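Posted in: Structural Biology > Protein-Ligand Complexes

Title: Requesting predicted complex, T4K in pocket

I'd be grateful if someone could produce the 3D structure tokens for the following input. Sequence and ligand are given below.
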Amino acid sequence: MQKKELTIYVTRPNLPPLEKLHPYLEQIWQNKILTNNGPFHQQFEKELAKYFNVEHINLFANATLALVVGLQALRITGEVITTPFSFVATTHALKWNGITPVFCDIEEKTMNIDPTKIEALITPKTTAIMPVHVYGHPCDTEAIQDIADKYGLKVIYDAAHAFGIKMKNKNLLLEGDMSVLSFHGTKLFTTFEGGAIISKDEKLKKRIDYLKNFGFADELTVIAPGINGKMNEFQSVIGLLSLEIVEEEIANRKKAAETYFEKLKDIKGIKVFNNFDGYDYNYAYLPVLIDENEFGASREKLYDELKKHNIYARRYFYPLISNMPTYRSLPSAGKENLPVANKIGEQVLCLPIYGALEVETISKVIGIIENINTKK
Ligand code: T4K
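-- Reply #1 --
Done. Output follows.
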């Protein structure tokens, strides 16, 4: 009988040792504070601020709520220029605020919003730009800020993938007016569900805190129709413990990524992203682009072939948000406006990457790629 192949997912969370959790749980059970800015929440906020080297941070139940609240806190309205090459939550956050998303094409090099194409999309209704550091590759924040300054726009970075990115000459999370991180279970750093906003002034931090707690400024005063976006004590404890292991996770992922890069370098028709000029990458994802003509098989063929072997690579971010039924009728969503994003959406595949991924598994993935590459 043939041995059943192990299932390999695109990612696996790096969890802290279970025995380290128990003393924290005992404390929670003892003091019975479960949420609403409890002691572990306060401690996690402080330690995370230290890790990111920032002053102001608001913890959230997840990044989607953080994006929704962040846009409200900055009083963004009208139209916002954003990328179609992201997870749907980026655009949904705009819609939940009654804002019209305006899709801008992306650059080949980073797969992030193309700053040279932003200006042409600005109208009198534009109030902000919402780029995404896709896969953790930093956007061209200087070029984006120049445009924002020229037209008086705010910049909100969806930094859901950018945990642990270290730029040589700046703090990525302090670019623009705010950055929003995700700590979802599929992320490099996880609190099961979770997220955070990094902002640059105390007043804004306070306003976000009110908005994520129903709008309560004190016991009796509600200053806005806020929402419940709070992170709880359990998530905060997981966060505290995960902080202790995140650097090791990045280092392990780096090793895995380097194995991939080495093994993929001679395969025709597969493009990897391994130029990290000016920053230390976090290895959150391992995206590759399959050029069907050069590779001799389509992205779909490779995706299906891997799946046959129980390897679940993911087509992040396909379909493009601009091609989804809820957004495709927007004037900016036309394929002719977004040629690069549409091309990359058809070619991209995220291969499995996580700290515990074994070299043998990477070799297996490469073996499957080599087998269907007809242009060897
Ligand atoms: N902005 C951007 C740019 C984002 O990428 C995201 C989230 C957000 C905003 C919003 O952040 P949050 O509100 O979620 O904090 C996943 C995630 O659900 C989503 O959080 C993430 N982006 C997106 C890129 O990916 P799926 O549909 O791929 O998840 P799922 O359940 O298929 O998981 C993929 C694989 O990961 C599974 O096959 C196995 C593994 N996995 C997953 C989970 C949930 C685990 O091993 N353990 C787990 O607990 O969307």
